[in-house]
Each structure stands twice: as C-alpha cells, then as structure tokens.
C-alpha cells in the first residue's frame, strides 16, 4: 500500500492528488518515486546481468582451464605410456625371438608327452608294491600279474646273487689250495646253462611247489574256487619286501666278500615267502577248528618241504657233476667220490 512521502500516512486511494492527512501534493512525488523505482529496477537488472555475465565468463575460464589441464595431463600420460611401451615392445620382441629360437631348437617341449601304457603299468606296480610293504595283507583278491612279477624278480635277482656268492667262494677255496701246492684240474664239463641258470631253476621250482600246494589246499581241503594266478598273488603280493631284499643281496654279493652276513641276507627273502605261505594256510582255514587247522598247516608245510628237498637234491647233483667236483676231490684226497 502506498504512503504519503511527507507524513507517511497510508493512502487508501493511490490516485488522489493531495494527502488527506497533511494536504501534501502527491502527483509529482508519485511520479518521482515511480521513476526512482524504475531506475532502481533497471540498475538492479543491469547489475544482475553483469554479475551473470561475469559468472559465465568465470565459469567458462575455469572450464577452459580445466580442459587445458586435462589435455595437458592426457598428453603427459600418453607421452609416458609411449616411453614405457617402447622398452616393453623391445622386451616382447626379444622374448618372441627367444621363444622362436627355443621352438627351433627344442620342438619336443611344445606339448607334454603322454606316458605310455608300460610306464603307467610300472607306476601302478611300484605303488602297490610299496603299499603292501607298509600294510601287508595275506588275502589278495586281485587279477593282475603283480604277484607273478614279484616271483620272477625274486628268483632272478637271488639266482644272480647266490651264483656270485658261490663263484667267489669257490674261487677263494681253489686259490687257497693252489697256494698250498695242490694243483687241481678245475675244468668243468660242458654245460648248457651257467651256474646262475641252475640256481634260477631251483628257486622257481621251490616257489612253484609252494604255490601249487596253496592252490591244492584251497581246492581240495577248503573246497574254494581259486585260480592258479590268484594263488600266486596271494602268496607273493604280501612279500613285496622280499623284492627289495633281493636287490640288496645282489648288490652286496657284487661288492662284498663271502661272509656269514651275506648268507643271512640271502635267507631273508625265502624266509618272507615261507612266512607268507604259512600265514595264507592259517588264514584260509579259519572256518576249521583250531586243532584241525594247526595240523592241516603243519602237514602241508612238511609235505611241500619234502618235495622241495627231493627236487633240490636232484638239481644239486646235476650242478656238482657239471662242476666236476667228484674228480677234483678224488685227486685231492686220493680216494673215490
């Protein structure tokens, strides 16, 4: 509401020419006030426009500065990336050249070689062999040939070791007799097999008799269905330690002189096989009373030992005749042998 500029009285009608309170002329004053208000509004608008323009200029300058800073940072980053990329590119080129040379030199290393079936079988064999050494088990329901391999390795290794032992012993004995003045004719008759061959046959016969006795015991006495291969596995898979003992016996026979220690080591593999044989008989006959079981095991062990003794004597007599020992002893002591 407008007021009188002279007395401040509120004017109910702004169009009156004089103030009803003090009589002051209001027409010129209102025009001056309006003009002043219009001038103030104009000045305020211009000030606002100037402020906005300055703000826009400042914002534009800041944006331009930030844009320039950003462009400069991008240029520096690109320059650094180019500088770092150059040695990396050189390294990659050098690595590629090295790889090309390696590929040219060693083409076999491009792809890993698949193990052959023989390598896989050997790995599985030694894994089971070591497992049975740590945890031996008498009854083995296995259809592989690991027991047969154990049998062959023990027989072959022990035949070489025993033949080497007897060869060294006989050589030492003949050397001592020759130094004592006894010149003996040590020429042996022609033999189709070397000494280790006869020993190998003897060991195989002994093992075959044990396996055949175990096979008949389960078939005839216990009335169980079993194959000959299963009987071999049940007897020779638990005796995996005998394989390593046979290797040890062969090594010691090559580097040591004949002694009682070697004889004991030679006996250990055969002792393990006999223990496994008796244990198999005892476990397989668990359904029988204890007294019958004991006698079954004892009778089977005695019979197989007698058969082994008979075959061993026959083989030993053949070996002695091949070595011409009777004639040597006859010339030594002047008698007939």
Describe this structure in words.
- The chain is an all-alpha fold.
- It has a domain of 215 residues.
- It is 74% helix and 0% strand.
- It has nine helices and no strands.
- Helix 3 packs parallel to helix 6 and helix 4 packs antiparallel against helix 8.
- The longest helix has 79 residues.
- It is rod-shaped and about 175 Å long.
- The chain starts with 26 loop residues before the first helix and ends with a helix.
- The C terminus is likely disordered.
**Biggest sheet record:** none
- The number of strands is 0
What is the average of the pLDDT values?
A: 74
Uncertain stretches of 5 or more adjacent residues: 30-36, 331-337
Our measurement of the CA-to-CA distance between the termini, rounded to an integer number of angstroms, reads: 163 Å
As an assembly, this protein is: single chain
| SSE pattern | HHHHHHHHH
Structural class: mainly alpha
Shape: rod-shaped
Helix content: over 70%
Q: Strand share of the residues?
A: under 5%
Work out the helix count. 9
Radius of gyration: 56 Å
Layout: helices, strands, pairs:
Layout: H1 27-105, H2 117-134, H3 146-179, H4 195-221, H5 228-236, H6 240-255, H7 260-284, H8 290-323, H9 325-333
Helix pairs in contact: 3-4, 3-5, 3-6, 4-5, 4-7, 4-8, 6-7
């Amino acid at each position: 509401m407008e007021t009188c500029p002279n007395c401040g009285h509120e004017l109910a009608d702004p169009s009156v020419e004089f103030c009803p309170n003090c009589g002051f002329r209001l027409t010129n004053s209102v025009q001056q006030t309006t003009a002043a208000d219009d001038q103030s509004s104009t000045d305020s608008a211009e000030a606002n426009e100037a402020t906005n323009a300055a703000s826009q200029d400042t914002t534009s300058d800041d944006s331009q500065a930030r844009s320039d800073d950003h462009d400069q940072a991008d240029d520096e980053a690109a320059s650094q990336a180019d500088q770092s990329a150059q040695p990396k590119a050189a390294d990659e080129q050098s690595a590629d050249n090295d790889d090309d040379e390696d590929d040219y030199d060693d083409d076999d290393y491009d792809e890993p070689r698949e193990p052959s079936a023989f390598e896989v079988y050997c790995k599985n064999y030694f894994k089971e062999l070591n497992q049975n050494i740590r945890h031996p088990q008498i009854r083995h329901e296995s259809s592989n040939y690991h027991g047969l391999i154990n049998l062959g390795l023990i027989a072959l290794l022990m035949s070489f070791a025993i033949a080497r032992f007897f060869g060294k012993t006989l050589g030492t004995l003949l050397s001592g007799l020759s130094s004592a003045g006894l010149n003996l004719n040590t020429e042996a008759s022609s033999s189709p097999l070397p000494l280790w061959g006869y020993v190998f046959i003897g060991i195989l016969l002994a093992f075959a008799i044990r396996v055949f006795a175990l096979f008949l015991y389960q078939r005839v006495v216990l009335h169980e269905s079993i194959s000959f291969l299963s009987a071999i596995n049940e007897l020779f898979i638990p005796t995996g330690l005998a394989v390593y003992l046979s290797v040890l016996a062969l090594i010691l026979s090559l580097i040591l002189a004949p002694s009682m220690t070697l004889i004991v080591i030679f006996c250990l593999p055969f002792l393990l096989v006999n223990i496994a044989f008796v244990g198999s008989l005892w476990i397989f006959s668990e359904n029988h009373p204890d007294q019958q079981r004991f006698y079954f095991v004892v009778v089977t062990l005695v019979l197989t030992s007698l058969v082994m003794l008979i075959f061993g004597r026959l083989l030993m007599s053949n070996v002695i005749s091949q070595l011409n020992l009777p004639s040597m002893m006859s010339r030594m002591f002047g008698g007939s042998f």
